[in-house]
Amino acid sequence: MFKAVILGIIQGITEFLPVSSSAHLVIFQHFLGIVEPDVLFDVCLHLGTLVAVVAVYRQQVAELFTEFWWMLRNVRRREEFEAAFNGRPALRAAILIIIGTIPTGIIGVTFKHQFEALFSSLLGVGLALIITGLILLGTYWVSDSNRRMYRMGILDAVIIGMVQGFAVVPGISRSGSTIAAALYLGMNRRVAATFSFLLSVPAILGALILKLRESHHTTLGLAPTLVGTLVAALVGYLTLKLLVKVIDQGRFWLFAPYCVLVGLGTVFYALMSK
After folding, report:
1. Which of 175, 194, 232, 253 could cross-link with 11 by S-S, CB 3.0 to 4.6 Å?
2. CA 158 to centroid of chain Cα atoms
3. pLDDT given at position 10
């Protein structure tokens, strides 16, 4: 139970802060003595932070579902779809999230086994954290823009979706890499954050469904898993609210030194342990 609570706190903090929750889970599982990666437990913790996303963006999520349902009921021809896509910002966002999810799913399924193998490699995690730090550092030179969601295109969604797919690698921050990608593409800071976190919803749900089909048990037990998930949701909600303020202030790059330092420390430890 103690291990589950600790890992839930770590997940809640690091899922949204651009420091890679999966990397921290791998590192802390190592030092807590969890020898074999408990993938199902990790996914359940991600489900907890998914609840946090839906809670923070509940208005936008409800609007996306409403608009998509409206499209299914009323749009029949290509001309109607194009008019709705260009004239209804919420519907445009919903469609772009669906489009962005496609490359994420393809990459995740194609490289599934390779990604899962990295969960047992501290050296790989450390190197990936350094890469994340460099990605975040680059946002220091990116100026804020007025490019809103209604000016976001299909190619933008595909690129961000691809970035999210490769962020399955432990050490590559999902939020950090996708928000940075959106900023590099010229998105407004708030839009970049909103699209990144909304894009995580179908990705986490998909991962959860796949894992439930493969395994229905966790080495930590059912009760600790539920407690860890709840802790991740509560801590994640508070962390997400904080991160949105940091992004609005243009201080996203401040997480870069932390990622680089932790990455270097992890690489050093992994090499010395061999």
Report:
1. 232
2. 15
3. 86
